Structure formats: C-alpha cells, structure tokens
Amino acid sequence: MTTIGIDIGGTKIAAGVVDEHGQVLQKTRRATDALDPEAIESAVIAAVAELRVDHDVTGVGVAAAGFVSPNRDGMVFAPNIAWRDYPLRERLARGIDVPIVIENDANAAGWAEFRFGAGRSARSMVMLTLGTGLGGAIIMDNQLVRGAYGAAAELGHMRVVPHGHYCGCGHEGCWEMYASGRALTRAARMALVTDEDRAGRLRELAAADGTRVKGQHVTQAAAEGDPLSRELVTQLGHWVGAGAANLAAVLDPELFVIGGGVADTGDLVLEAARAAFRAELSARGYRPEATILLAEMGGDAGIVGAADLVRY
Amino acid sequence: MTTIGIDIGGTKIAAGVVDEHGQVLQKTRRATDALDPEAIESAVIAAVAELRVDHDVTGVGVAAAGFVSPNRDGMVFAPNIAWRDYPLRERLARGIDVPIVIENDANAAGWAEFRFGAGRSARSMVMLTLGTGLGGAIIMDNQLVRGAYGAAAELGHMRVVPHGHYCGCGHEGCWEMYASGRALTRAARMALVTDEDRAGRLRELAAADGTRVKGQHVTQAAAEGDPLSRELVTQLGHWVGAGAANLAAVLDPELFVIGGGVADTGDLVLEAARAAFRAELSARGYRPEATILLAEMGGDAGIVGAADLVRY
Amino acid sequence: MTTIGIDIGGTKIAAGVVDEHGQVLQKTRRATDALDPEAIESAVIAAVAELRVDHDVTGVGVAAAGFVSPNRDGMVFAPNIAWRDYPLRERLARGIDVPIVIENDANAAGWAEFRFGAGRSARSMVMLTLGTGLGGAIIMDNQLVRGAYGAAAELGHMRVVPHGHYCGCGHEGCWEMYASGRALTRAARMALVTDEDRAGRLRELAAADGTRVKGQHVTQAAAEGDPLSRELVTQLGHWVGAGAANLAAVLDPELFVIGGGVADTGDLVLEAARAAFRAELSARGYRPEATILLAEMGGDAGIVGAADLVRY
Amino acid sequence: MTTIGIDIGGTKIAAGVVDEHGQVLQKTRRATDALDPEAIESAVIAAVAELRVDHDVTGVGVAAAGFVSPNRDGMVFAPNIAWRDYPLRERLARGIDVPIVIENDANAAGWAEFRFGAGRSARSMVMLTLGTGLGGAIIMDNQLVRGAYGAAAELGHMRVVPHGHYCGCGHEGCWEMYASGRALTRAARMALVTDEDRAGRLRELAAADGTRVKGQHVTQAAAEGDPLSRELVTQLGHWVGAGAANLAAVLDPELFVIGGGVADTGDLVLEAARAAFRAELSARGYRPEATILLAEMGGDAGIVGAADLVRY
Known about the structure:
Chains A, B, C, D: Its EC number is 2.7.1.2. Chains A, B, C, D: It comes from Georgenia wutianyii. 4 copies of one chain form a homotetramer. Chain A is an alpha/beta fold. Chain A is built from 9 helices and 13 strands. The longest helix of chain A is centred in the C-terminal third of the chain and has 25 residues, at 227-251. At the A-C interface, loops of A face loops of C.
C-alpha cells in the first residue's frame, strides 16, 4: 500500500515512495526548467519509474504551486510554470500506469501535517505556511477543503488592512504582506532606516552575505537573541495570530499549525501568535479555543502529503 | 418523509411541517420568554404535538441563535437565552419521541437557501444574512461546515479594519460593524451630522416613526430613490463585497447568497457588492469567479432549513 | 500690570487676578447655567467687580470652549453654551470698562503652559490636553496659532484611522477616539469582555463607584500597578506619541506638553508617548527632535492663560 | 528693490531677477552636479554675477530641497545633495556681497503662490505640491511657518493609514504614498493587474514611451477622458481632500492651494479633493470653510518665492 509523492518546484522535482504511516522509504530528485512543461513531465515519469524498481506502488500524487482543478486532474493556473487549464494528469498518464492525482503544494504539505504531524490527532485544522509568502491548507471534518474551483485556502490573500501594503497580487493589505518572510524583509529594511542604532547585527549579517537585509537574517539574529530582530519576529507573530482569529470566526478549527521557514524562530513566533489570537478571538470565553502548534514534518511534507492524498 | 422545523427566537417560537421539497405544509407559533428555558421547551413540545396531529413526521430540527455543540445535541452558548452547555436535545426528548437535531439559526437559514433557494444548484455556497448584525453559513461540498466546536461561520466577526469600529463582541473592526443593519444605522446618524442638507428624507421618516434614524429608514428611503440613502446602501454593499472577496480567498465557494432585511434593497446592494467583489478578488482572471445572488426563501428559511437538516 | 482671567465652564465660572509672572493673587467662582447666556454674562461681570475691589487690573481675558472669532471679540460656536456668532465681548463690555479678549479655553491653558509652565523656555510648542476629549493649542514663534477662523488646534479631530471609531463629531477615526479619557473608557469596557480574567481591579473600582468602568478607574488602577490598566494606558500613550509624530511633520515644534487628567498617570503615559513618537517620527536622525513633557500648571491654567493673553 | 531668486535642483540651478511684484525680469541656468557642493556654489555665484550686470539687487534668496536651519543660514540636511549641517550662506557670501537667505524649495514655491498667485488675497494658506512626492508650505498670519528646526510642512509624511503603504522615509502609511505622482504610479500598476480590461490606454501610453506605466501616463490619459485613469485621479483627489481636512483641524487655514504635476489634471483632482474635504471636515457647518484652489505660478514659483523671501 505504498504510493509515490512528487513535489514539483520551480527548478527541480523531488519524489519519494511513502508508506501508509507517512514514512519516506526512498527518494530521488531531478533538476527541471519551469519554462519547459514537457521536460517536467518527462522528469516526473522518469522519477516514478526509478522508484518503482524497488517498490510496488498503487498510485502517484503530484503537488505543485497554483490552482488545481476541482477533480484533481489538472492545473487551472500556476504562477511559476507555463500551465493554464493544463491536463497534467492526462499528460503524465502517458508514462505512468497507476492512478494519479494532482494537488496544490500547500494543500499537500498541510495534509501531511494533518495526517502524520502536528495535526495527527485533530479532525479539523488550518495550516499556515510562512515561507516567502503565506500559504495555507484547510481540513474540516477530515476532508481537505479545495473550494469550488480548486482555489480555496489562498489564506495569504485575505485583506487585513484596508489601503495597506501593496501585494504582488495587485491588491492592498493582503495578510501575506504582514505575515511572511517577505513581510519580515520589509520590516527589517524599514528598521534600518528608523531604528538605525539597534540594527547593527542585521547589517552585519547582510554584509556577510553580500546582500541587502532579508527575512532570513532576522530569523537568524532573533535566534541569537538580537533585541530588534526579536521585536520584528514578535510583530510578525502578532499578525499571524490576528489573522488566525479571523479564520477562527470563519472555520472554528480545532488546531492551527504554523510551518515554513519563519516558523524556525519557534517559541518566539508561536507565543506572539498565541497572544494575539487570544486577544482577537471573538466570543472568547464562550467557546472552546483552537490550539496553535508548530509544524513537525519538515521539508518532506509536500512529498508525504501528495503521496497520502492518492488514498483520499 | 415530512419533518418539523422549529425556529426559536427571543420572544417567540415558529414551527412548521416541511416536506422533502422544502414546502411548508402547516405552521404554528407560540410566544415565549427568553429568560425561562423550561417554558421554551414546553412551547416547543406543545407545538410539535399540535403539528403531529395531522402529519406523520420522522424528526424535528430546532434552530436557535448561538453556538451549537458539534454533535448537534445542545447549546454551548446562546446570546439571548439562558443556555450555557445546555443539553437541549435531551430536555426536548422528554416530550418528543422522534429524532431531534439542534442547529444554529443562521446555519439553518443558509441550508434552506442551499437546498431549495438561490443555492439549489450549487455544491458550495456562503450565506450572508444582513439583519441587525451579519450572520453566515458555509456549505462546502454539500456539507454544512459547523467547525470543531460548532462556532464556524461567525462571519460578522472577521476583522476588516484594524482599530476600527467597536463591536458588541468586545473587538474592533468586525465586518458586522460595516455590513449590517447596525452599520447602516450608524452611517445614517453620522450623515445627519456631516451631510445635514441631504438628510431631509431620513429625518422625515424617523420623525414619522417617533424614533432616531435607523437602518430601516435608509433602506426605505433608498427604495424611494433618496440619493443620500442610496449612497449609504452602496457603501454598505461595498463592504459586503470586499468581505466576500476575503472569504473567497479562504473558501473559494461557487456562490454567495445575500439575505436579511438589508437585502430588501435588492439590486442596489447587490450591484455594489458585486463591484467590490470583482475589485478585491485576489487572482481575478486566473480562476473562475463566484456568483453573488439575493436570497429567495424569505421568512420561513429557518423553519425549512432546520426541518431539512434532520435528514443530514 | 495685573489682569483678570475668567474660565467659563458648563456649570460654573472661575475667575482670578493674575500678575505678570503668572501668579494667581485672588480667586472667585460662581455657579452658572449653560442654557442662560445672560446669566453667564452677569456672573462674569460680578466676578470681575468683586476682584477689582482689591486689585487694579488693566484687562480681562475670557476663556471658553468653542470656536472664537479671529479678532477675539466673540464666539463663532460653542458646543455646550447657546452661543452662535455671539458678540460676547460687546455684551461683557456693558459691565466691564477695561479691555476684554475672548479666547478658546484649550488655547488659554496651552498659553499658560507656554508662558509659565513646561514650555516657558520654548519658542514653539504644541499642547495636548487629554481630558474627556483631546484638546490642543499651538504656539509657533511665540505666537498662538488661532487659524483663519479661530478653529485651529482642534487636534483631537485629525483622522488617524480610516474607517475607525465613530466620533461624536460625526466622523470616523478621529485622534480623540484613541487618545483621551473617552478612549480609555472604551478600551476598559472592551477589556472587561475580552480580558475578563485580568479585569478584576477595574471591576472593583467601578463597583465601589456604583458605575460602569470608566477612564478614571483605569488611571487609578494603573497608578496602583494593575497590569491590565498599565497596558491600557501604555496603548493610549502610543496613540498620543504617534499623533504627535504627525504634528511634528506639520509643525516641527520644539516641545509637546501633555496635560489633562490622563496625564496624571505621569511617566507611564509619557514614556509610551515618547517611544511611539521616536518610532513614528519621519526623518528621525536627520533633524533635531522635539521634547515631550508633562504639563505643570494644574487646574488654574485656563485662568492664567486667559489673563496673560490680554497682553498679546 | 529687485532681488535674485535661485532654485537649486539635483542637476541644475535656475536663477532669476524678480521685482517686488513677483515679475521675473531676467533668467539664467547652469548645469550642476549634486555630488559636488563646491561646484554648486561656484555656479550660484556666477549666476548671480551674470544677473547683476544689468540689475541692481538688494539680496539673494536661495531655495533647495531639505531642512533649512531656523535662521536661514544653512542646510541641516538635504536628501539629494551632500549637505549636512552645512553653512551654505557663509560659503556663498564669499562671492556675493548682498544679503543672502536660504529657504526650503517647497516653502519658496508656496510663498510665491501666497504673495503673487492663488493665495495673493489670503492671510493664511497651505500649499500642497503634488509632484513625485507631496511637499508643502504653511503660511499663518502672513508668516511662513518654518518650525523650530526648519522641518515644518513636511506634509507628505503625516501618517494617514496605520500599517499602510511603505514610504521611502522608512514609515508606513505616509500621506505621500496616497497623494502624489508616486501614488498614481502605484495605483496604475495595480490597475494593470486587477482591472486589465480597462487599462488599454495606459498600456498604450507606456508602450509608446518604452517604459512601465507611471503617473504621467495616468494624468495624460485622464485628460483625454480615459475612464480608468479618471477614476485613479479621482481617488488620488479624495486622499488630497481627506488629508487637507486633517490639516484644517490643525491649522484652520483660509485656503489650500494644489500645485505640482498632478494638479495639471485640473478640475478632476480639484473637485475630488473638494468633495472629500467637505465630507471629512470636522465641525462642518459650525465654522467657515477653507477654499481649495489650483496653483497659478507655474515653473518659476521657486525662483520668485526665494527672491521675495529675502524681504521677510
């Protein structure tokens, strides 16, 4: 009852054989070119063939960034790869003779967390992946919520500030602009201007990298104890919690799971998120409250979730 | 296969026999006292007995404002009735020998709309009930989303403005404070101060009622064509649409249905909501868009939805 | 060279003889009725006569809430007294044979602070009076800024939050709604709902007064060290400082002086205001920064300022 | 009684002889290098010498971007030229033997408008210069308001949106980010994403220039009648008027004058600004209201204002 999970990124694919307990039994990778859909398909097909040499598998789950069609057979739109209303399952089926399902990558990662990670005891959960942007996944009553058109859980694009920061999506005030690595980068650059005296450690880290300050420098400096960086991460955690309180009004989940690179700041972002969640939760005291936990699955979450979703 | 639906309000209960097509075959009402839970139960039991004289029913659905326990057997909390972790099903079962389910009233009304009204062709839908406040219901993949603790779809308490208007819930900037009858009342009272010259019709209507201006005066004057009132309703519609765009980022539903008293302004609020939805929808043009329609079920929606939910 | 200062309130007038060093040599009071302008005038005339028995005075300065005409001879509008384009100087001159000037009460209090209090060494200053509302006074280059129509320094009505809290003035998001006794009252009432566990001391103080919680309870509890109340005052101080940073962009004063009842929290509100001012000041580091101090003149500021303004 | 005005820009200086009626009698220009303060000084000295061949002048006024010292003898800080606490008057006096005053360029332009342009009948006025950014000047009681440290009237850096757009100054939500050419550029680029169907004319104009869309394309298309561009300018005008209402609460001026490139859209921006000003003005109806007019002085305003300020 093993399946294969594939995580298609912008520059490579990662593939793995996953058993029914979420264990990755074997992995492989291949470099790809986002501009060449056919080459991506060949790479997926080759990776599957390689993994099947030593493993019997009953299906293949493929995760990619973008909107997935509701019946999971193709991509409606992808931000990084030239897919538009693209029949990805049919294309892959030319070289793969077991069932294939396509899934959004944030959904796959959230599903892995739900099944085998921080959410394994929950029936409903919201995953918040704080990477460069803010991705999400929603599971309600043990079901992944995909939406009518495969575009649900684009949580980073809830508007949290009218007339707020301009998002790459063309709108103002998206949650992602306040709670993501990108937000941390912007906050750090502002602090260099407005809080120059306290920004020494950030300048050092950036200088050592030969780059402008970015979010990773803040998470690193915060881990070391740099006061300014800890403030910036706390502020970000505040926005995470405030947005989670909004989602609790909509979905009333049992659990929020915070993952992605920003989550590496651990307790700092977690405590700030929990405090803001408590402060902003409507009807607090008149209802049970969701728990907020850090993710546990790490970098293989996409592979594991995609593989497991073949069974659902 | 008929069932009974009960809508418990603050001052009365309404009960009806409903067939499997959502038709109300017979109705009855009883005055009640929100401070006396036992009297409410007796009234429900008596109403059910009365209706069963002429109808075979297979179950009873009971709708009330508040948080319903996840397994639909009681009330976690009610804002208007003295219920707190209250075993309402067990209490009613003392006098009713068919299956009973308890449901939140906004969920029941939304379900009626989903099954027999504006949403009857949809698989996923969000109901927005613009009454005094802003209530909601969420249906995804033909399932009512109740949340882990029965508190889902409290849509009016999403925060749309940081540091915004104070809501009775204790928080600032709740959507309800911008998109509800209460919001319309506040906007009208502000307009009396800041736009005195154009507020003549509103002052007349309030004077005729012997009250301060309120939301109903605005909807009436807007229907008559009063320019200021039409602006106020349009502004409200804008907030409805902007909030719906937020929900689309989370849920990606096929349909939004706008009901409640404010929806009586018809096309005016609908067109404003649609325009704002289009303007604020993330990734517009790269995904199919939800439709926004007015509700069709009218005042019996609570009864019909509660009755039908017995079957689900 | 002594003059008389009169402070006309809603229920009483206070009058005093003031020397050129801002010392009050003699005081008197009279109860008045805001609905009876003639009685107010008689009371002012009688108070002046009483004080002149023992003092030679060269003029009378009268302070009152509202908009004062640019040439200081009357009231354009008063919020609490039935004055509208009212020739107050001419009316008082019937019983007072020395020069009379009329001045806005917040301007008079700010002027007293500028001449004899915290601002006595400054050339330019902004006074922020945090009472029930938020009043202000602006002195630039040793001149009181009255505006073209006597309505300058209505600082509480700068908008600091689009779509924010509804102000009695008919607008949303006025600074006064975030930085005043009224704001503190609202924040405290919200905290009773959202932070119930920590609001014990506030509930006690309100119960002891037999009223709902209000701003004064918060300032008292904060002075005692109550953690929740200290947070609420700190939050208010944040808004004070953020608004002051806005004013610094407009006016670049040398000094801000914080007075009024909320200022009785002393260092707590002061430090919070200073921190937010530093954080929000544009071009910080490229310009000298204004100082922020607490007021020193206490309750006679209106009398002293009005008396002194006769000389300017 | 003629004087010389000098406008020092980033790449050139413009100089003119101006009579006491604000007429420019002779002009000259010189290219300069912002990185070479000495060369700038030599250019100013040479320009003055050239103009004095045919004109007797009693003083020289020099306008430049940045903070000017309160006694007008030097630059505290300049954003574009390497001046920091720089004794510019002393440096220029080495080659100019008549009195010299230094002034901020936006102040000089506003002063020209006040003395000879749209504000020539006013006693108090606020100038809003909508160029790439938003500059300002404040005149109260016929006096230019310079502030304690020469940094007054940095109006573009009032915060109008908490958590709003990131300004180059390091802060969020500055007025300049909503009411300037830069704001128009951002709004246009957003509209290309969110309102693609209606953005044809903007795309054409940008393509013809071989650049990305920018503010000038919007003002041009708006002048032609392009509906989307007219909306964008109207929206900008709204922010202009809303900010002006804030300033009216602080300063109560008689007049606002709107200048700069965005003002070339004329009635469109003017009417939108007036409407928002009326809608947002506190205590409207209880006080006389400021007028809002377009600037009249055109491109020589800096020279004329600097020259005239020598006399004040």
